[in-house]
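Person: Please comment on this record:
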Amino acid sequence: MQFERVDDFEDPRIADYRNLKDGRLSTDRGRFIVEGRVNLRVMLEQSAFAPESILLSDRTHRAMEEELSDLAPRCPLYVSEQSILDHIVGFPIHRGCLAACSRGEAVDPMTLVLDRLAAETAPRFLILEGITNLDNVGGIFRNAMGLGARAVLLCPRSADPLYRKAIRTSMGGSLVVPFARAGNLGELLEDMRRAGVQILALHPGLESADLGDLEASEIGPVALLLGTEGAGLSEESLARADRRVRIGMEPEVDSLNVSVAAAIALHRLRVQHSGGADACAPRLGEE
């Protein structure tokens, strides 16, 4: 039997799913939850993460039985009434599909950066300082996935990309784009600069260069440094940046939503060759 029936909310097989806050699930069990068919498919098709178990409603089971059946027995597949799944999170936003996944070992941020520098001519990175809003973090990862950022690096205070709301908002981007958290953001910025990555701080001040004036094809490895919409970047981080850049906008408007700003900046820094290939693609002969 590939799919196992669960008819009791207290069944120990679904302990990871039962009304657990993201923080507790992370610290106590080293896991996170993926919600919804779209995010589950993104994880199975594109992500380095893998489900340790999957919990489906009867309806979703019927819709996904064929595509999920080959995951058993290495990944337990549980089927339950919709009411049990609704009880788990309190509302049916998951559309009858949940997966429990291991977080794995934390990644060293400079190891991630150096791996991309070894593989690509001009990778684009995003660095987040103090971005605690899960919608913004998720939106940034969605943009990173769609616009070619090779990794997202977070300060100690920025929100967890593997919280459920961040994954949902990212449309699976936080399951696909590699990320790492720095213990000390200032040290990470200095290490990246020494490794040859230019740090561009998005800052709306008039002293900042207009992003539209930059020629993406003339810029090598770049990290876009993003701060909160209110306080912005810290003075320490601004001081460690190579350049300050701003997005040109109407004079009475001083800022954009940070995920929108990230999308505009990433799009501006995409380098298109005549053949349509992205300059961030691996060099020939490299994986």
Summary: The first helix runs from residue 22 to 29. The CA atoms of residues 11 and 127 lie 41 Å apart. Confidence is low (pLDDT under 50) at residues 273-287. The two ends are 39 Å apart (CA to CA).
